[in-house]
Amino acid sequence: MTKPLQIKIAGLCAEIQAENNPARTYLRSKLRNFLSGQKGIDLNIEIDRNEASLSNQSMPHLSFARGKFRILPDKNPAVSLGIIDPGARRCKICDFDDKSKLLHSVLLCFALFLEKSGGIILHASAAYKNGDGYLFPGPANAGKSTILKQIKNYSPFAEEWVAVKKTGNDFFMWSIPHQNAQNKKKNIQKIFFPKKAKTLKSKRLRPQDAAKRLLANCLFSTMHPETVGGVLDRVAELAQRVSCYELEFPLNVRLDKEIEQTEFLRKKKKPQEKMNGTEGSDLSALHESLILTWECNLHCLHCRPYLPPNGTLSFNDVKKHLDSLAKKGTLFLHLTGGEPLVHKNFWKIVSSASQKNFALILHTNGTLITPKVGERLKHFNFLQVSLTVLGGNARTHDSLTGVKGSFEKTIHALKIMKEKGLDVVLSTTKLSDNQEEIPGMERLAKNNGVPLKIIPYQTPNKGEFKEFNRCYQKNLQRS
Amino acid sequence: MLPLDSIILKNGRVPWRIIEGEAILVKVDSGEVIHLNEVAAEIWRIIDGKRKISEIVDHIQKDFDVDREQAEKDTLEFIKSLSDINLVTEKGK
Question: Of A95, A224, A237, A453, whose CB count within 10 A is highest?
Answer without folding.
Answer: A95
